From TrEMBL:
<dbReference type="InterPro" id="IPR004841">
    <property type="entry name" value="AA-permease/SLC12A_dom"/>
</dbReference>
<dbReference type="Pfam" id="PF00324">
    <property type="entry name" value="AA_permease"/>
</dbReference>
<dbReference type="GO" id="GO:0055085">
    <property type="term" value="P:transmembrane transport"/>
</dbReference>
<keyword id="KW-1133">Transmembrane helix</keyword>
<dbReference type="GO" id="GO:0005886">
    <property type="term" value="C:plasma membrane"/>
</dbReference>
<dbReference type="GO" id="GO:0006865">
    <property type="term" value="P:amino acid transport"/>
</dbReference>
<keyword id="KW-0812">Transmembrane</keyword>
<feature type="transmembrane region" description="Helical">
    <location>
        <begin position="45"/>
        <end position="67"/>
    </location>
</feature>
<protein>
    <submittedName>
        <fullName>L-asparagine permease</fullName>
    </submittedName>
</protein>
<keyword id="KW-0813">Transport</keyword>
<keyword id="KW-0472">Membrane</keyword>
<keyword id="KW-0029">Amino-acid transport</keyword>
<feature type="domain" description="Amino acid permease/ SLC12A">
    <location>
        <begin position="1"/>
        <end position="141"/>
    </location>
</feature>
<feature type="transmembrane region" description="Helical">
    <location>
        <begin position="74"/>
        <end position="97"/>
    </location>
</feature>
<feature type="transmembrane region" description="Helical">
    <location>
        <begin position="117"/>
        <end position="136"/>
    </location>
</feature>
Length: 167
């Protein structure tokens, strides 16, 4: 049974390396990730994206060594920050699209969020409340939100990029 679990874990790691390396390269080619992520080896392997992914893997192993009983919750909290940020960006971009449509700067689309803009603001309020609740989950949630101060630079960069490109 152990060999089956180990094989499944290694297979998952391998597919993660393959996918994230290619996705990071594609994002870099489109201007949505740092340009160095687009670098390829002579064998057409996106080594920069793979190395960045390996760094994240090593951080996970290091966390597992330091705090084995809490590492899952730490990783889960950081993943939650990414998901919350993604949904917040989607809602903000949807609100900006609706504003641009009203001003005649963009063509109308067939989907209209029911109850908008009230539901858009309600969604953003809900996402903010999830962050507040995470902050009360001591120690992991509190530390994750505190560490989000570093994470905010990435999110801030993304907001500036979104504003400049009118996402």
């Amino acid at each position: 049974m152990n060999i089956v679990v180990l094989t499944a874990a290694l297979s998952s790691l391998n597919s993660g390396l393959y996918c994230t390396g290619r996705i990071l390269r594609s994002m870099a080619m489109g201007g949505s990730a740092p340009s160095f992520m687009a670098k390829m080896s002579r064998q057409h392997v996106p080594y920069a994206g793979i190395l960045a992914t390996l760094v994240v893997y090593v951080v996970g192993v290091f966390l597992n060594y330091l705090v084995p009983s809490r590492v899952f919750e730490i990783v889960l909290n950081f993943a939650s920050l990414g998901i919350i940020a993604s949904w917040a960006f989607i809602i903000v971009c949807q609100m900006r699209l609706r504003k641009a449509i009203k001003e005649g700067k963009a063509a109308d689309v067939s989907f209209k969020l029911p109850g908008a803009p009230f539901t858009s603001w309600l969604t953003l309020l809900f996402l903010l409340s999830v962050l507040v609740l995470m902050a009360f989950d001591y120690p992991n949630g509190t530390y994750t939100i505190a560490a989000a101060a570093d994470y905010r630079y990435s999110a801030g960069y993304r907001l500036v990029w979104c504003a400049q490109t009118r996402c």
